[in-house]
Design goal:
Blueprint: E1 6-10, H1 19-22, E2 27-30, H2 31-37, H3 54-57, E3 66-70
Antiparallel strand pairs: 1-2, 1-3
Length: 80
C-alpha cells in the first residue's frame, strides 16, 4: 500500500538462524529483489511462498525477522 521500493531485512542472528536469513540480515534490498526470493527454495521455506507472500513469510517457519519498508534516504549508497 505504501508503494515502498526499498526494504530492510532485520531481526538479528541466533543459533538457529537459517542461511537464507543470515545472508540478508541487516541489509537493504529493492522491492524486485525481495520479490525474487519467492521463487527460491531453502530449508524452512513455507509452502505458498511467492513474490507477494515473501513479505509475510520471510525466511519461513519460525522466522523472527522482518522485512521493513524504508525511505530511500536511509539506504546507504553501497546498496544502491
Amino acid at each position: 500500500q505504501l508503494n515502498a521500493q526499498w526494504f530492510l531485512y532485520t531481526g538479528g542472528l541466533m543459533k538457529t538462524t537459517r542461511p537464507f536469513c543470515k545472508a540478508r540480515n541487516g541489509k537493504f534490498f529493492r522491492r524486485e529483489e525481495v520479490e525474487s526470493w519467492g521463487g527460491e527454495d531453502w530449508d524452512g521455506r513455507m509452502a505458498g511462498t511467492d513474490s507477494k507472500t515473501i513479505f509475510v513469510t520471510r525466511g519461513g517457519y519460525n522466522c523472527q525477522h522482518a522485512i521493513l519498508p524504508v525511505s530511500e534516504a536511509v539506504v546507504p549508497n553501497r546498496f544502491k
